[in-house]
């Protein structure tokens, strides 16, 4: 029975403090207070400490520094052993070869003892080449031991994954490395080549065929070589004929001819580039029988006695192709060199072609058809895309919203038209005239716009030199003919007189004087009406006619009560003279809502001094 001698099982303290800093120390006492000899100096160390006198006197002896450790992946980085080898592969399904020799390169990487097998790529070999065995540690036996560089040498067989490789040689670095490691290398061997690849690299047998029987010699010799001639076809004898330029191409490879038309801008012809497609052109036909058709789809050698060749084309001579005579006046530089080397021809002086200047055709403007303005219709004769005629912008800006208004009467044999009155407006900005007929109730005539804004030509003016009505032609009493209708100017606004006086230099003196006389007579009538005396020169019959016309016009207003109007006028006419002054007359009309702006009312007021 064992007795426990140890009574204390605590561990000694390994941490302590010195000068206020914590530090660690090795334990000197183990469990139970036993002394630990592990952390104590040995007797040899104690003896060495006893004999340190020379060290204290001369210092410590210098020791040789051991060499540092270098790992293999650093020492052998990018160092590869390369061996040339080959293996034989059976080809059972080929009649041209029974086996195949495939040359490979075996690479041994010293840094990690891995091996890779690479087959150089041969162009058009017929099978895939490149990496044959990827880089890894290749086992050499059933136990899985990998190949080492000591197992490799020249002139030996090495088996990897069931395939035997014959190593024949290595590169100089591999030879130096193996000899430095004490390995005796075998002598190098000659690389075995593949018999099928050698047979493929042999030059083919060249068969030379006489040129007389080689039909492809011309094609191989003159392929992509074309003669170019510049020609002109004179077709002026036919209707609408002209001189048309063409380019003749002669292909030396097969003796075919192509004719192309040269187009110019705005020549009026469809852009068809090929005039005669590329083909062999017959020069002389065999005597045809009467039964032979004159038009055939294809021409064979049996129908043609002679074809066109390069000898038939020359500069300065005409050539007839399919009934059309082309005059060749020039050629390009390649054609000159070809004829100089082939036929010895050196005369290539180009012929100058003088084109007849086109006859100047006078531009005849068709007669005006009456639609639209004359200037707009004239622009359609100048271009397909007519542009609007230019306008006088300064005149439009200066005379914008300036209108001269006249009262006109229609001159007509029809008695119904005698009482019709119109307002003629002349627009100074664009010299246009519009006519408006004020509507009159129960007159049987629909009023409104009679003539839209347009320029009115004077009688006798032509389309070549049109003359339009202007402000100087509009005088009191003058007659204006508007598209077959005659109008007489009977009155005008005061603005017309003011405008004419401010621009007196632009109007004839007779026009201005007629307008002044008209307004002077109006002023005299107004002054006479104020003095209750009829205007001098005004007959009673003329005044009665005006009053009757005014009454007819006022009857058109249904809202007027004529009895109340008469009573109001009689009340104002205290002396029973039958006349009222202008102020009283206008005040009564305004109170009874009688329209005083009518032209006839104003005329009665001027002539009759407001007689009722």
From TrEMBL:
A Pfam match: DM10_dom
Compartmental location: Cytoplasm, Cytoskeleton, Cilium axoneme
Gene that encodes it: EFHC1
GO CC terms of this entry: axoneme; mitotic spindle
Molecular function in Gene Ontology: alpha-tubulin binding
Every DM10 domain range: 77-182, 223-343, 400-504
One annotated GO biological process: mitotic spindle organization
Protein's name according to its UniProt entry: EF-hand domain containing 1
PANTHER family: EF-HAND DOMAIN C-TERMINAL CONTAINING PROTEIN, EF-HAND DOMAIN-CONTAINING PROTEIN 1
